[in-house]
Amino acid sequence: MSAQPHGHEVSAEQAPTTNSPVPAQHSGWFRSTFRDSSRLLFLATTATTLLSLASPLAEAASPPAALVMARYAVATATHDQPAHVVIAADVSNAVATFTTLNDQLILEYNLGNLLGTPRVVGWINSSTYAWTCVSFPNSIAGSPQIVPGSGKAHAALLVLPNLLNLSRNAVAAAASHHKAVSGADVAAAAASVRTSLAPKPTFIAGQGGKVRFTTKVETGSNTFAVFICVQFPRTAYGIPVQVSC
Predict the structure, then answer these.
(1) Which of the residues 118, 136, 160, 215 has the least number of beta carbons within 10 Å of its own beta carbon?
(2) Residue whose C-alpha is closest to residue 244's, from 206, 214, 210, 196
């Protein structure tokens, strides 16, 4: 008598086949698993693409680092509804997006901040103090380009906040006496911080006028003579603004 195998025999009707349908109770599980796998694959692909796009940020002083953010800003503006040329908000968003990847490249001035070159954006490397400037074309989907930076313009940006603050203080001091600012008020404010005015402003209160501030700025081994002009208001409590000299 031959030995019988342990267990039970499977008939042909019970044997699974490669084209057997998935049992109904398992079909929902397969669909859910497929959806979850697809979602994870999509997120992984997106993350890989973003990291590969941002890989130049490993060398923050190199021009491609700024171009990564500049091109991201262009993509944001181009895919907006409606599409528009890049604006300062697009650049700020791009910088904020990539800050977590590299914090050495700092946005020093945005679109419209640098008088005379409204379509230029400037970054500075906080470790090397090297500048990277990018020019954005005034057209939708235009390609941003690395451009030479102006040492004198960068020097002006360093002193501009202080000079505007001085100007606001002069306006506020005059307003505290219920009058508009005068040239004499501005000259007194400038003398208190040893800032030169050329020529000395002579406009009277209520007239308003343009004042040219003159100062020297040292940046590394370079010294620049910087001229910044501010237009003062005719009314009390007005706002002084930077203008072309």
Answers:
(1) 118
(2) 210
| Residues 245/198, Cβ–Cβ less than 8 Å | no
Is 115 in the same domain as 195? Answer: no
- 176: containing domain: 153-243
pTM of the model: 0.60
CA distance 212 to 243: 10
Residue 197 burial (CB count, 10 A): 16
Three-class secondary structure of residue 145 per DSSP: strand
Structure tokens at 241: 């603004």
Do 162 and 216 lie in one domain? The reply is yes
CB 104 within 8 A of CB 62: no
The phi and psi torsions of 225 (rounded to 5 degrees) equal: -85, 120
Q: What is the DSSP string of 163-196?
A: HHHHHHHHHHHHHTTTS---HHHHHHHHHTTT-E
Strand, helix or coil for residue 121: strand
Last residue of a domain, one of 96, 129, 149: 149
pLDDT tens digits, one per residue of 168-208 = 999 999 999 999 999 999 999 999 887 899 899 999 999 99
